[in-house]
Amino acid sequence: MRRLIIVAAVIGVLCLFLFMVAMMKLSVTIFFQHAQDDDEWKITFRTLFGIVRYTIHIPLVKVETTSPSIVIAQKTSMGNTPKSKEKRKKYTPKEIMDNFRKAREFTERVVRLYDIMKNFFRHVSITKFEWQTKIGIGDAAATGMIVGLGWSLKYSVLAVCSKYMKLKTTPMITIIPSFHQAVSETKFICMIDFRIGHAILAGIRVIKHWRGNRLSKIKAFATQQTNEGY
Questions:
Q1: How confident is the model at residue 131, as a pLDDT?
Q2: Which residues does residue 173 pair with via DSSP β-bridges, in sequence order?
Q3: Are 130 and 191 in contact (CB under 8 A)?
Q4: pLDDT at 110 over 90
Q5: What's the whole-number mean pLDDT along residues 189-216?
Q6: Alpha-carbon span 179 to 139, nearest angstrom
Q7: d(Cα 164, Cα 154) in Å, to the nearest integer?
């Protein structure tokens, strides 16, 4: 009897812990800055009221024409600890194409992936959206055309984000044309948050609808038998 009480208490504590984790919010900040030939990516994950923080820095994205390949320098940090040693990774065109192929195969393997992701994004909130750009190629007419295309692109991205996610902030979007000199600068900041439980649920649904797993085979077999019965 005592053992049953201990087991029940352990299960209760575990369920309470899992419930608390599921209800916790995860905040993700995406930062991108491009200034002429200097590019920087930074993605920060925060949870537990900002106590737990993990940051991925990608300060260098360089294209090598001799190989050819793309070199990415990446740093990671946890909380307020110093950045770890810089890690450089070189991606050849073949590796990039292989990654695109694997991503396409993944989308093809998951049944109803669009519906799963659409349902997940319904629970994602955008709390900050800033996109500032300064651009020019030295020619006034061509610069005006590029600025028009830039506004169309930004509003299209914002429309897609607001369609699938909850926009809880006033977007700050600017484009400053430079008619007399060649300039290429942009700064993008986007903050989103969602409950960890919704992400876990989306992951479970992806596994459930993965083509070839036993659950999918059982469901397909049951559907086939039902159709044959009719």
A1: 94
A2: 131
A3: no
A4: no
A5: 83
A6: 6
A7: 16
The residue to which tokens 């994004």 are assigned: 121
Residue whose entry in the numeric block shows the structure tokens 């050819």: 68
Handedness of CA 197, 201, 207, 210 (dihedral sign): negative
In angstroms, the CA 184 to CA 186 distance is 7
DSSP the chain: -HHHHHHHHHHHHHHHHHHHHHHSEEEEEEEEEEETTEEEEEEEEEETTTTEEEEEEEEEEEEETTTTEEEEEEEEEETTSPP---EEEEE-HHHHHHHHHHHHHHHHHBTTHHHHHHHHHTT-EEEEEEEEEEEEES-HHHHHHHHHHHHHHHHHHHHHHHHHSEE-S--EEEEEE-SSSEEEEEEEEEEEEEEHHHHHHHHHHHHHTBTTSHHHHHHHHHHHHHHHH-
Query: How far separated are the first and last CA of the chain, in Å rounded?
Result: 52
Would you say 29 and 191 are in contact if contact means Cβ atoms under 8 Å apart?
yes
Taking the alpha carbons of 190, 194, 196, 201 in that order, is the dihedral positive or negative? negative
Higher pLDDT, residue 87 or 222: 87
In angstroms, the Cα distances linking 145 to 36, 132, 135 are 20, 18, 11
Select from 46, 41, 57, 49 the least CA-distant residue to 79.
46
- Whether residue 162 is predicted with pLDDT greater than 70 in this model: the reply is yes
> CA of 206: how far to CAs of 44, 120, 190, 209, in Å?
25, 11, 26, 5
